[in-house]
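Subject: Sanity check before I submit

Could someone independently write out the structure tokens for this chain? I want to compare against mine line by line before I put it in a report. The sequence has 406 residues.
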Amino acid sequence: MNRKIDKNYFASARVGLFTHYTYPTYAEGKGTNYGGTAYSRTDLRTAHSAEEAAALFDGEKFARTAHDLGAEYVVFTAAHAGFNLLFPSVTMAETGCTHKCTESSDGIRKLLDGLAPYGIPLVLYLPPNDDHDIVNEDLQKMGWYGNPEGRTEFLIRLIREIYDRYGKGIAGFWFDQGGPDRRVCDTVRECNPDAVVFINTGVTANTVLHPNSDFIVSEYYGSIEGCDSDTLPVHYSQVNRQIGNWYAVGGKAPTDSRNLYRYTVRTIAVEGQYNCGIAWSCGPYLNQTWEDGVQELLTELGGLLRAHDGIYGTVPGRAYPEAPDSVLTKDQWGVSTESPDGQTLYLHVLNRPADGVLRLDPPADGRKFTRANFGDRELSFVLTEHGYEIVLPLEDDGIDTVIRLR
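---
Independent answer below. Compare away.
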């Protein structure tokens, strides 16, 4: 990957992988033991410590899975429940909370090294306002207890430590729960001027850009489980939909790659989608297997994404725009994407007309097209009083017939 990793890169990214891989702690009276990656499909215990979770993590294997998916970026937990860091932290040691980081193993370094050969950038997830699994004694040591200023100072020190430790290999941060103080976000950008900052303000279909965020983020836009993805709405924020669970806890692949592909295409085509597309959400067990069928599903999806034109390096199609929050009905042919320069429009025919003739309305943006191609073959392309008619090729993979208009 030779492209500069900055906000423009993420704005045009279409596919990511979003993973919670965590060691949780439980604070009596403050909630549940939330966010705990299980050991395996049959052993649902969580790690004994952050050290164990990081020591077991296989960065190379995870990176291969991200590459097989065709992910253009990875969002991965530096910490989640209980704010337990997956690396040995000087900042945490200074507070006296060395039990809230690793002793020597460094899960983040492993992942950075694993992603490097593929050129996939890493964004770290942090929950800067999450104290529901932290005992009051630790909150006091960290400076968080009833002290927003102390919390901000802690996070600033931690962000600086992360950049001192990993350099600009950290492409940015994905902050949950409304995000931290603006000074924390400013610190990210001071340490890496090209860094991206995501701030999640809710769990469904966020529509307002947080003033400190580079993109609109919807962490939870619903699970794919049990759904025909055509019935699921799309959105112009970054969409994170679950395959299995946020973190591995005994689930299984709840769908097939065709279903995932169709939703991915619909998401990247939605009007206004310049917010990093879709990040499919799942992760490995502590023993580095994945929930039943999930890893295979990611590989199959990646194969479909690579096999079809009009996915990577495109923007939403303006001639035939897809409205936010829309679904795909059986009488709709599909969606469109286009090259950033607008010279090529890609029609993603997801529902083939019974007679094999695609009838298009006049382009919404007033553009005029003169030819249609399927691969290297030119198709019959006729201007009518109602728009265009294209005779589709007989061969069809049953997933996405991609027609290029110019």
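---
OP: Matches mine. For the report I'm noting this point. Residues 7-313 form a domain with the TIM Barrel fold (CATH 3.20.20.80).
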